[in-house]
Amino acid sequence: MSATLVVKCGGNAAVDPDAVCRDVAGLVLAGRRVVLVHGGSADVEDLSRRLGVPSRRLVAPDGVSTRHTDAATLEVLQLALAGAVKPRLVTGLAAAGASAVGLTGLDGGLLRARRKSAHRAVVDGRTVIVRDNHSGRITGVNGRLLRGLLAEGHVPVVSPPALAEDGRPVNTDADRVAAAVAAELGATGLVLLTGAAGVLADPADETSARPVLELAGDALPTGVRGGMAVKLIAGREALAGGVPVVVVADGRRAHPVSAALAGAGTRLVEAAG
Hints:
Largest sheet: 8 strands, mixed
Mean pLDDT: 90
Number of helices: 7
Helix content: 25-40%
Number of strands: 16
CATH topology: Carbamate kinase
CATH architecture: 3-Layer(aba) Sandwich
CATH class: Alpha Beta
């Protein structure tokens, strides 16, 4: 099988899905095999408001922010990702000349996860235990299913939820899904698209994107929080899984994936030694 690239299309509202689809389709038509993984935070937030389902974030003691996925939010997430974001990407790829197949992690047992029994979060300066959080950590990817679709010339378009060991769905972070998919497929690269020029040295300065960022152990760079922190965790997992090229790049530009492969954005590397 030829070289495979995994692209994570961020859920940030600033990311241009049409530009992503055109760029991915161009790579596919040029002979590249691509898996497109997506989240959809903006769509989930919008649907939550329309349905009157409160949206909450959980901030772990290390500063990493994740969605609080109670039962109602899990239902909203599935509706938004499978019912809005995925069709948008599949039709966008088709319009650009690429055949795409939309999958959640439940389809064909694509994504397996271990349910988190409890989640530590900081609330009003105190660390508390949250137990009604339907989330999990990826433990397996059905690479055979993805390889079959890629061999037939399709672009798999993948999103959470995943299937937990109890046979029920759980939310999983899409960046970490992309890392797991890239590692399982032995991908030559992982591109994490976001609503910034890369990993910024100064979050207030759009021109301060670091060209290269070394990741040492479990520590994250000072000042990195929220969604970017999760991207760095995902990048670290992809590198540990043998993915040689991991880039955090700007999803707002005209050719976001091609630009990332050409050197734009921030390349993540393991610290030497």
